[in-house]
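In this supplementary section we document a worked example of the pipeline. Step one takes a protein sequence of length 347 as its only input; no multiple sequence alignment statistics are reported here. Step two produces a three-dimensional model, which step three serialises into structure tokens for compact storage. The input and output of this example are shown verbatim.
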Amino acid sequence: MMKKHIALVALVCAAGTAAMAQDQVLNIYSARHYATDEALYSNFTKATGIKLNRVDADDAGIVARLKAEGSASPADIILLVDASRLWRGEVDGLFLPIQSRVLDDAIPAQLRGKPTTNGAIPWFGFSTRARVIVYDKAHVKKEDVDTYEELGDPKNKGKLCIRSGSHPYNLSLFGAVTEHLGEAAAEQWLKGMVNNMARAPKGGDTDQIKAVASGECGVAVTNSYYLARLMRSSTPEDRTVVERVGVVFPNQASWGTHVNIAGGAVAKYSKNKANAIKFLEYLASPVAQEHFANGNNEWPAAKGVKINNPALQAMTGGSFKSETIPISVVGMNQVKVQQMLDRVGFK
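The serialised model returned by step three reads:
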């Protein structure tokens, strides 16, 4: 009888140990596929002992996978790199709203999801990237492209290069402009941009910058961190590109420059909620926020974090005015924006 009791105790202890070990692992579905983030993850594991298993995909792939897996999903943390995707994940109920004083104190209200009735937040932004305008310094005047509205002005006919209008980065920008201008004026603006294109939309943001430098376009739109990468590059080709283009943070005299965000949430069916919250709180810490700035040329989302990135400082002179409309509003506008894009023939 005593042997059976000892065996039972051993079995219970082993099960408990296994459960504890399982609790020390977080499964992350990440749209952040930046090599520089490896240090971010490894530092968390060193500090906490919690191992991180990562599944990398783009935003759309992650959302589709979560929907397909349902309650069987092993995901604990969701990391996405676009405001409209975060909003969509919130609306589709893919996130588990959480309460965290650490995150509430660190992350500004406009960079979070909509609070539930009990004050829980579905997602938090952890870094921002400005949607800036680059222009050919030899042939375009800065004052002709220092607002988003001027991208659709006839004075810039035949000069504009831009990636697909349906790309999430542009959907977010267009959703923000729609909020500022109203739907009718925004549609006319989009039509003006179509009329001003130097070529059909194609490629990514770096391709737009290089097209300006080569003379194919006079002006283009890009996320700031793509330009910062070129500015920090040591290759002669990249240095030549940077020398030929100027950069504008649009609408400094009005509503401010549009910023997109990368953010995170606890997955709806996470089995490790406490550790998942701990990871999100880590992403809001000064050490992690500095990593976003120095590792991937993004601006920190947390309040009061100073950065030491020469490219970001050179671009802005130290600071810039950003818009403050809630991300949820930008997300809600994306359906009407897509309809406008279809009507004006913006591919």
